[in-house]
Amino acid sequence: MEHKGVEVQDRSSPIRMKGTGYGIRMLLPEFPSEEDLLDLLQRIPPQAYIFPIGEGVVLDFQSRPCSEELLVKILQSVVWPRGFKVLAWLSTDSRTRERLRNAGLRTDEPSSVLSSVAAVSERPETLVLYNSLRSGQNIEARGDVILWGHLHVGAEILAAGSVVVAGRLKGLVHAGSEGREDVYVLAGSFETSQVRVGHRLCYADNSMSWWQKPVLITLEEERVVVRESSFTSGMN
Predict the structure, then answer these.
(1) CATH dotted code for 131-228
(2) Is 88 strand, coil or helix?
(3) Alpha carbon distance 59, 37 (integer Å)
(4) Are strands 184-190 and 215-220 parallel, antiparallel or unpaired?
(5) Residue 123: which of 210, 11, 18, 21 has the closest Cα?
(6) Which among 9, 207, 215, 226 could bridge 190 via Cys, Cβ 3.0 to 4.6 Å?
(7) In degrees, to the nearest 5, what angle opens at C-alpha 135 toward C-alphas 132 and 139?
(8) Which helix (H) or strand (E) holds 74?
(9) pLDDT digits (tens, 9 = 90+) for 59-116
(10) How many other C-beta atoms are found inside a 10 Å radius of the C-beta of residue 161?
């Protein structure tokens, strides 16, 4: 399986997730009922709201009307229990926008987003995946890649940008595949024999002190540097 686009979504859910320079933009569809939409939001795994890259979530209702009841339920059953930061609540529906403003919620693009639009637009968007990759599955991306799952033996991620594997990193990763050196690899559990960063290759085995631990791998002065990380995703 190979993906060369800039956006991947869970095909079982009409909710679209777009990786951005500030975290995740969540595009909520018009057609499900409010009850079904709430169910779809609750099905998204909690680890999807942990952001090693970026700041938080922008919830975009697009043209979908949002009742007060739905807004309260989203806050009570999704936002507050999972503790993630909502940067903005967007809508093109005038009544929904007024309802959001009356609730004291931000309804315009955050200033931090606006100030970085030019820089973000120059790079491909982040590719976000919500399934583990198994042997024979290969991902190729022109930007960063975030995998909320495990990268099994025989699977591979090739990214021009940085790579985050929230679970076990057992397959092959090449961050900075086009020669960039300002990239990194972040893994929830390092369990692979080699990783590439830029043009450099790092070999490892289970004798390393950071084996099966969260690690951050960077390129510094043309050397691959591996550090234990405090990153936790909740995946075993």
Answers:
(1) 2.160.20.70
(2) strand
(3) 13
(4) antiparallel
(5) 21
(6) 215
(7) 65
(8) helix 68-74
(9) 999 999 999 999 999 998 888 887 778 889 999 999 999 999 988 888 987 754 444 4
(10) 22
